[in-house]
């Protein structure tokens, strides 16, 4: 059985990799078998960063060097990512969930549903409180939106109330307001994955499920 696939997209620096650093251990504590495919233009930077966290076997993290506009590898021609997913599923047939992290670009970045089952779009407060009003396709069309770095709003002149108001006016889909440093708001992101992607009832963290793994 193929693993479920969740895309993580958003502009450079919005916190996509930081989100994965938080989500993967949480899901593993629920007994979910996870792997990750990261996209960078010409490096393995994000893959190496995740490997250094040592919460997954290094072989469960594949870095794809897209070598072109990051939109192409997740939307127009996702062949490289699909091959990476195939390699993971062949080596780890017990996988239940594979994250595909975009190389990061701008608010127009969206995923092909030939590649993923659902995708999360990450923006950050540091980019300004006008971001929701720009109606970027990634932000507007994502299955779930994460508005990250809420803790820095007072320091960058961003108004969280304005962000919340504009987001509510423009999106009917789910949204979480997060701080990956303190894990504020991450329960909502985890719950979205458990409920709508994995279709499973949450098991308390630390409780073994499905026997020995």
How are the SSEs ordered, and which strands pair?
Layout: E1 4-9, H1 16-29, E2 34-40, H2 45-53, E3 61-65, H3 70-76, H4 79-91, E4 97-101, E5 118-124, H5 137-141, E6 144-148, H6 153-156, H7 160-170, E7 174-177, H8 186-197
Parallel strand pairs: 1-4, 1-5, 2-3, 2-4, 5-6, 6-7
Quick recap:
Helices cover about 35% and strands about 20% of the residues. The protein is an alpha/beta fold and about 210 residues long.
- The count of β-strands is 7
Shape: globular
Helix vs. strand class? alpha/beta
Number of helices: 8
Proportion in β-strands: 15-25%
Q: Rounded to an integer, what's the Rg over CA atoms?
A: 17 Å
Proportion of residues in helical segments:
25-40%
How does the major sheet shape up?
A: 7 strands, parallel
Helix-strand pattern = EHEHEHHEEHEHHEH
Strand order of the largest sheet: 3-2-4-1-5-6-7
Low-confidence stretches: 207-213
Q: Calculate the terminal CA-CA distance, rounded to whole Å.
A: 17 Å
């Amino acid at each position: 059985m193929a693993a479920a696939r969740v895309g993580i997209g958003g502009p450079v620096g919005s916190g996509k990799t930081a989100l994965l650093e938080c989500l993967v251990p949480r899901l593993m504590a629920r007994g979910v078998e996870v792997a990750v495919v990261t996209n960078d233009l010409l490096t393995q930077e994000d893959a190496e960063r995740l490997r250094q966290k040592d919460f997954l076997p290094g072989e469960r993290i594949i870095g794809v060097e897209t070598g072109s506009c990051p939109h192409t590898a997740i939307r127009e021609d996702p062949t490289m990512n699909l091959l990476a997913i195939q390699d993971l599923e062949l080596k780890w047939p017990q996988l239940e969930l594979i994250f595909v992290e975009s190389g990061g670009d701008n608010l127009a970045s969206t995923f092909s549903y030939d590649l993923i089952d659902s995708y999360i779009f990450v923006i950050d407060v540091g980019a300004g409180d006008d971001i929701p009003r720009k109606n970027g396709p990634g932000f507007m069309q994502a299955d779930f939106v994460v508005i990250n770095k809420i803790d820095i709003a007072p320091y960058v002149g961003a108004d969280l109330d304005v962000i919340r108001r504009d987001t509510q006016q423009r999106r009917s889909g789910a949204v979480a307001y997060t701080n990956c440093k303190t894990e504020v708001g991450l329960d909502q992101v985890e719950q979205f994955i458990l409920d709508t992607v994995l279709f499973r009832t949450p098991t308390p963290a630390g409780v073994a499920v499905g026997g020995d793994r």
